[in-house]
Each structure stands twice: as structure tokens, then as C-alpha cells.
Design brief:
Layout: H1 10-13, E1 20-23, H2 27-40, H3 55-78, H4 88-94, H5 101-110, H6 116-128, E2 134-139, H7 160-169, E3 175-180, H8 185-191, E4 207-213, H9 216-227, E5 233-239, E6 247-248, H10 256-284, E7 297-301, H11 307-316, E8 321-323, H12 339-346, E9 353-356, E10 364-368, H13 372-382, H14 411-423, H15 428-439, H16 450-455, H17 484-491, H18 506-525, H19 531-551, H20 563-581
Parallel strand pairs: 1-2, 2-3, 3-4, 4-5, 5-7, 7-8
Antiparallel strand pairs: 6-10, 9-10
Length: about 600
């Protein structure tokens, strides 16, 4: 969801029992939002200066503790409310799925005649309600080394990701840190220095670990790495490689449903192995072990658009929860989206959502053509002034031209790189293509945070107005703003808020994205494909074909869908299979050297 969009979402949904995730990588934004909400809550705000000791970690802790205090007060208030229509306590229960035992108990209370029994049931309902979790996210690749005021590199624990983790670990939260974008061994090791990640005397974990993973193999490798340190993974969050928001990872062409099938069959085996490894490590550390297997959740997200899809994931693949992200960008009472960007999202077409190479991390990034950051980037390029002013420097990793790392989206780097390319006297068409690759990169650590400033009337730092937003392509099927109740009702099948655009099943949508990705990779490789690239493309194609074989029997299990829907699923599957079969992977390009005979 980016930096800004859920930065204070817990204050808007936690009191209704809804969990959300806050990105804690941008400490300047956290500090500004702490100031804003402290003023809103009449709390004393004491700034944590940027030049003060360990400011990054302390800012994270201070902001998270503020969120917890506010949510606690909200929960205290909601428990005192009358069960009158329009109150938050009534909304809490009305947002629950119709099948929920709590919802049924609430409905039972509403239908009772006034009296002692009804009052007792109301008191029981008040005691039952609980807040949603305030989870946090750390993108493991955002782990830049920081420097002292004298220009000397600071110890590793003051790097971006490590300091953010310390800020979470030192907070009062009982929640999870979500690690995304792959392994960071030193970050995982750093978790083991905080007692809250280990079981207490009641075998409870105050701080939990959630891994965002692309497949079972990734989950197994990372889970074992952590278990060997005595750290338990409480949730594996499986995300569609391409049919999601933010950064995208196409991996080797593994499709979502076959991945879920593998988790379904291997979860118990994996968790049993991890428990043995984890307890062995805890014994070596002379720490409390788990007498029984702690809870492990399997969740899934990426491209879900209907209640039938949501329920199918829970029922057929036996996952514990299914996450919805991008559609909530159209719910103003939940997320921070500025007015201009919101209107652009409402009027967007399918082609406005695209997979780009914009991110300075060198990872594919789901982008939005109508964002103000995209428009401003084009204007700067046309004026011969490419790149962005680099203020935060979170993604400063390149040392091609400088001793101290800089960001490849920065104006400094792009001008240096373009000058280098120009001096090489490349053919005009080759030069143009190389320059386009350079200037495509754009600042995301600053522009992904702008919307929170604009939405809340806070002057953005450096007067920056550009907004980057990274919704998944599934947002093309939603074309309005919605209330929280409307969105929840859609998720639970009580309402339909999709637009009139024909929307295939989420698995078909994902498959098409993968086929399109493979086709582009093949096209870009023609004439220069290496043996390694050739092997990758063939493996990718084979994995897609294997996934299609799996899907051929899946439609019949979609019991909630109509027969016509299942027929369309299989027809779309056949069309994509045929298209895929016609994609020829180019053979490796071999440069034949001139041979001379003596």
C-alpha cells in the first residue's frame, strides 16, 4: 500500500476489530503524523529531532505507542456506548460476516425484549469485543547504511531496517512485524536480540513475525533460518507475484492456486519440523520452550475481488484469512489518498494500471499512469532535467560514480549516467533506449508518502506535491468511492460494488499477467538471450503450463459460482494455454569468433 496510505489506518479501523499494517520505514513521515495526531488528541508532543541519538528507532517507538494509546481510548469509549443505531459498538457487530457467531449473538440480543436478560447479554457483548492488530511492515531491502554527522558509517544496528525493527521491538504493541521482499539475514538475526520475540512464561509471544512469501520453498527456507535462532513464524502471508499492489515478484512463473495447494498439504509437516528446530535453539539459549505447537496462520492476498473468491480461498485452500488491499484506496475513511489522486483512480481505465521498472530497487513495481509523480517525471524529462531531488536517501545504494552511495532515481545519478552514455557514441536508437531505462526510475521513498500530508492538510517537506501510488491491477474493476461499511459488505457478499467492466476470475487475471510478462521478456531477449536467460524463460513457461493443468480441474470445485461462470473460466484457460504454447523461447545467442588455421 506504500508509505502514506495506511500510516494511521489503525486509528480508523482497529476499534471495529479490523487489523491493518503500518509501514515504519519512513521515520520523517511517522514523526509528522505523530505531531498531527498528538495535537488531534490533545496530547503533549515533544519532537524527536533528526540529529538526535538513535532518532529513527525512537521515532518509530513513539509513533507506535501513540497509536496504541489512541486505540485503547477508542476501545474504552466503544465499550460504554449504548446499543443504538449509528453508534460504533453497533457498527462493530454489523460489520462482522453474517456467519460469525458474534454477529448471531448480536442479532439475538437485538430481537430480545427489554429486560435484565437483554442487559446481561449486552454486557457480555461489550466484554467480547477486541481491537484489530496494529501490525507493522519492514521491506527488508530498505536497509541502507547510515552515517554520522562527521560522515563516518554507523554500526549496522543503525541501518534503516534494523533501526525500524528496534523501534517496533521497544514499543508497547502486542502485534506482528511483516517482513516483505525476501530475506535479510542480519535483520532476522537482530530479531533474536529482543526478548519480546521469544515465548514468555505462558508461552505467549508479545511480538510476532509474519513473512510475506511468494511460494512454499521461500517459506520453508526463511522459516528454518528463523527457527534456528529460536524465532517462531506466526504467519506466512502468500502474495500473488504480479496481481498485487506495490513491488511485484514474478519469480519463476509459479501461479497462486498451485502454491496454495502445496501449503495446504505441507503446512503440518513444515510446522512440525520448525517447532523441533525452534525448541532445540531455545534449549541451547536456556530459554522457555514451546510445550505445544504455537498457532501458525496461512493468509493470502493479491487480486481478490468478490466474496465468492474470498470464500473459495478460505474453504478450498483452508487458509486462515484473505487480505484485501488496493480496493481500500477508494475508502476515504480508511486510507490516506489525496483528492486529485482519488479522482484519478475513480476515472481510471485498465491500461492506467501497469507493471513498471520505476522502482530504484530494481524490482518490478505496480504503477499508475495518471499519478502526479508520473506526469511530473515526464515534464522533467522533456525539459532535459531528469531525476528527482533526493532528500530521504532511503534507497541510496549505487556507488558507480560516487564513493558514498546515491539513489539511481536521483537527479545526481541520472545526469552522471546520461553523460556517460552520451560519451560512448552509441547508435542513436540504442542511446535513446539506454537513456529511457535510466530516466524511468523515480523517487518512491518521498512520493509514496506525499498523500498523507496532502490528505491531512500538513505542509509536505520541501514543498513536494508529487504523489506516487502503487495499486494492484485489480483496482480497475472498482470505480467509485465507498464507505467502510460498503466495502466490508462487498467482501462478505452483502453488496456488489464492482463496476460494469467484465471481470474474469482472479486466477485467470493472474495467469494473463504472467503470460503477458513472459511475452515481454521473450521480446526483449530476442537476439541477445544468454543460456541462463533461455533456461529461465523455458522454466517460466513450463511452470505456467503446469499451473494451467492444475487449473483445468479447479473450476468444478467452485461450487458458489454458476455453471456459465465455470464454463467461462475453462474457456479463458484454454485460450491462454493456446496463446502460451505459441510463444517460442529464443535459443541462446552465440557469438561465433573468427577461426584461423595455421
Amino acid at each position: 500500500m506504500g508509505l502514506a496510505y495506511t500510516i494511521d489506518t489503525p486509528l480508523k479501523v482497529a476499534r471495529f476489530g479490523i487489523s491493518s499494517v503500518v509501514s515504519i520505514i519512513e521515520d520523517n513521515l511517522l514523526e509528522e503524523m505523530r505531531k498531527f495526531h498528538s495535537n488531534q488528541e490533545n496530547e503533549t508532543y515533544i519532537p524527536i529531532r533528526k540529529d538526535s541519538f538513535d532518532c529513527r528507532s525512537r521515532r518509530v517507538t513513539a509513533y507506535l505507542d501513540l497509536l496504541q494509546r489512541i486505540v485503547f481510548r477508542q476501545m474504552e469509549k466503544i465499550k460504554t456506548e449504548r446499543f443504538d443505531q449509528g453508534t460504533d459498538i453497533v457498527k462493530y457487530f454489523e460489520l462482522l460476516p453474517s456467519s460469525s457467531p458474534l454477529r448471531n449473538l448480536f442479532d439475538q440480543m437485538k430481537n430480545m425484549d427489554a429486560g435484565v436478560e437483554k442487559l446481561l447479554l449486552q454486557e457480555s457483548l461489550r466484554e467480547i469485543i477486541s481491537a484489530g492488530a496494529i501490525d507493522v511492515n519492514i521491506m527488508t531491502k530498505c536497509d541502507r547504511t547510515n552515517y554520522s554527522q562527521e560522515g563516518e558509517p554507523l554500526p549496522s544496528e543503525y541501518s534503516d531496517a534494523m533501526a525500524a525493527l528496534r523501534g517496533f521491538a521497544n514499543s508497547q504493541l502486542h502485534s506482528s512485524v511483516v517482513f516483505s521482499a525476501g530475506m535479510n539475514p542480519r535483520l532476522f538475526t537482530y530479531c533474536s536480540t529482543f526478548k519480546d520475540f521469544f515465548p514468555d512464561e505462558h508461552q505467549q509471544l508479545k511480538k510476532k513475525i509474519t513473512l510475506k512469501v511468494s511460494d512454499f520453498r521461500s517459506a520453508s527456507i526463511q522459516g528454518k533460518l528463523l527457527a534456528k535462532k529460536g524465532l517462531w513464524v506466526s504467519e506466512y502471508r502468500i502474495e500473488s507475484g504480479l496481481n498485487c499492489g506495490g513491488h511485484a515478484f514474478a519469480t519463476d512463473g509459479y501461479l497462486l492456486a498451485p502454491i496454495l495447494e502445496e501449503f495446504k498439504h505441507k503446512k503440518e509437516e513444515l510446522t512440525a519440523e520448525l517447532l523441533e528446530m525452534c525448541n532445540h535453539s531455545l534449549l541451547q539459549k536456556e530459554m522457555k520452550t514451546f510445550s505445544h505447537k504455537p498457532n501458525v496462520k496461512i493468509s493470502v492476498q493479491g487480486g481478490i475481488g468478490t466474496s465468492n473468491e474470498h470464500d473459495f480461498l478460505l474453504e478450498y485452500f483452508q487458509v486462515d484469512s484473505a487480505g484485501w488491499g488496493s480496493p481500500f484506496l477508494l475508502v476515504p475513511e480508511v486510507t490516506n489518498v489525496d483528492d486529485e489522486t482519488l479522482q484519478n483512480l475513480i476515472s481510471a481505465k485498465q491500461e492506467d494500471y501497469y507493471l513498471s521498472n520505476t522502482s530504484p530497487l530494481g524490482v518490478l513495481f505496480n504503477n499508475f499512469r495518471k499519478s502526479s509523480a508520473e506526469q511530473e517525471k515526464k515534464k522533467r524529462i522533456e525539459k532535459g532535467n531528469p531525476g528527482s531531488a533526493c532528500f530521504n536517501k532511503y534507497l541510496s545504494f549505487n556507488t558507480e560514480f560516487t564513493e558514498k552511495p546515491i539513489c539511481i532515481a536521483s537527479r545526481e545519478y541520472q545526469i552522471l549516467k546520461i553523460n556517460q552514455l552520451t560519451e560512448q557514441q552509441l547508435p542513436p536508437d540504442v542511446l535513446a533506449k539506454q537513456i529511457e531505462k535510466v530516466t524511468e526510475k523515480e523517487c518512491i521513498c518521498q512520493y509514496l508518502g506525499t498523500a498523507a500530508y496532502l490528505k491531512n492538510g500538513i505542509p509536505p517537506p520541501h514543498k513536494i506535491q508529487e504523489v506516487t501510488i502503487c495499486p494492484g491491477p485489480n483496482l480497475a474493476y472498482f470505480s467509485n468511492t465507498f464507505s467502510l461499511r460498503q466495502m466490508i459488505d462487498h467482501i462478505y457478499g452483502r453488496k456488489n460494488i464492482l463496476n460494469t467492466l467484465h471481470r474474469p476470475n482472479m486466477f485467470i487475471n493472474e495467469l494473463k499477467l504472467y503470460v503477458d510478462y513472459l511475452e515481454k521478456e521473450i521480446t526483449d531477449s530476442i537476439g541477445s538471450v544468454t543460456e541462463k536467460k533461455n533456461k529461465y524463460l523455458k522454466t517460466f513457461k513450463d511452470n505456467l503450463l503446469s499451473g494451467i493443468e492444475y487449473y483445468k480441474t479447479l473450476a468444478q470445485s467452485m461450487k458458489r459460482e454458476t455453471e456459465q461462470y465455470r464454463l467461462q473460466f475453462n474457456e479463458s484457460l484454454s485460450d491462454l494455454e493456446q496463446y502460451l504454447m505459441n510463444l517460442d523461447v529464443p535459443e541462446p545467442f552465440v557469438l561465433h569468433e573468427e577461426v584461423s588455421f595455421v
